[in-house]
Here is the input.
Amino acid sequence: MALLTDSSQFSGVMPGTFAVVPIMSDRFVCLLDPSGRVAAWGADARNLTGYTADDMLGRPLAALFSPCRGAGETGAALPVQGQAERVELIARRDGTRFHARIECHALDHSRHIGAILADMPAAVVVVQDVSAAGGPAQGADPALRPVLDRIPDGIALFGADCGLLYRNDLFGSTLALPDDLLWPGTQARAIMAVLSGDTARTADGACDWTTEILRQGRSLRLSWTGLPDGRRLLLCRDLTDLRRSESRARFLEQHDDVTGLANLPGLQMHLQMLCERPSERFTVLYFDLFGFKRINNTMGHAAGDELLRLVADRVRRLMEPDDVAAHIRGNKFALVMRAEQDSDMIWAHAQHLRSVLSRPMSVLGHDVTVGVGIGVVRFPADGSDRDTLMWNADIALQYAKDGKGEGIRFYNPVMDRMRQKRMDLERDLQRALAQDEFVLFYQPFLNIGTHRIVGVEALIRWMHPVRGLIPPGDFIPVAEGMGLMYDIGVWTLNTACRQASAWPEDIVVSVNVSAAQFRHDGLVETVAQALLGSGLDAGRLELEITETAMIDDVPRAARVLRQLREMGVKIALDDFGTGYSSLSFLQSLPFTRIKIDRSFVRELGQGVGDGAAIVGAITSLCGSLNVVATAEGVETQEQFDYLKQINCSEIQGFFICRPRPASEIQPLLDQIN
Here is the structure.
């Protein structure tokens, strides 16, 4: 590799000394003085680096190493005692660079007796270009390379001086590092400066650390750890897919998968964040859709989901950049408006939202419309925390749905007191059913032709232990909202059948069937059990059903009613004329009685006007269909006379008597019949 020769062939070396002379073109030899500066610089050094002896004599050789260091760092001086070896990136005079192995051998001057030691070279340095031979560090240890290549992470091994020894293929590709940072000897500081600008991470080679960085759009975790022999490992794992999955999971945790809007947890988190800022001002529009359940039940869940998506799209178009919309559940939504507005502006925005959502929407090829009720709360006036705001917003929404205020209601503390009364009522209703606090009153039907009572309608009342007798209008809507109507309906049916079984066999008992009870699949079985348990003949039982209970699914309603008629049970259509009735509707369902709504009877007066015309038409229609016509709400002799004149079959109302408890029905029958 080299020969000892007279040093006279080196520029700057005292004649008569010996030096190591290179015999290969990919290396050169130079001499250093005791301070580490160049004392001799030969032609081979000039050929390989481009620097002449005039350029280098008296300068530290380490001045050529700085390009491979971190920003602002200079190359460390070579020791001139003992032996040392390392790899450095050397810059040629023309700007090109090459990796070189630097071997420094200190000279022993003890045999040079009488020499002026200060004038003698202190060390011989051999600089070998390893760029062509080795390329970027891949794995100097053949036994270790297969292991590194199988590790699913990028991994690099550094010496105790934090210089790169070798790395696997994934290290460079995952970190997207340039080749000049992958050569042996590259300092960990230089790599970290490129990756994150944080060179302090590797300032102390003894400290282990882990950090996560974002590089070229990818999330990477870096771990620096020490080995027992003083070497260090830098591990790199690509977490991009994991972080995307986590981000998607977090999105789904806080967003509704049907509409893409925030869900209830997402809304709660957003409100919590806003409420923690005392200076924040915002408004919440809490709204739901009337008619959604009907569409969902009649057209299917796919139609319901499509309707929700269309509503969400319309809400998005009304939002400002800082607003947040949420689909809470079912048909309920919320819109959080960040901009501070006065009451008039909020009212106008709510009206616009209601108008936009009430326009027809094409759902699976069908035009549908929904109504909208909106409850409004403002922070902090209507609540200083998330839960209070949502509670008060729900209260305001309930009042918005009562048909007043154009379907929009701002929260008022008075509503809370009324809500508390409702909650008390709900609690008492639960107890009432369990403790049998309901009672039945009965109102008779009078046959106009025979002047005899032919039947009675069962009317439920609540005998409250504190408030006394409560009429159905005060608790039935609450029971419907609680989902208690099916159970109350079953109790009413069983009780009415049992009490009617004690009355004369020509007296029919009529029982109202709620929409919840009619839509229940077990209605026919419930009726059969009530008849069996009471011993009442099926022909003496009549079920009153409203049009709205059947309109959602007329084919199913027809099947259920025919099954009941086959049992012998009579069927009455209640509140006729106030809903969706048509001739085809009447012809397709097996009614035995049609009850004319009291709103038409009230307008009879002298037998003239729209009310009289409608009652006359319905009575004539019933005669054609061979169905009994019963006028509800008859209170005066004048109304009775007109109904008798147009051949109405039966009447019901205060003109006969007010509803009476079961114990008074038999005496009433004895008196009138």
Observations:
- The two ends are 137 Å apart (CA to CA).
- The CA atoms of residues 219 and 239 lie 5 Å apart.
- The chain is about 35% helix and 25% strand.
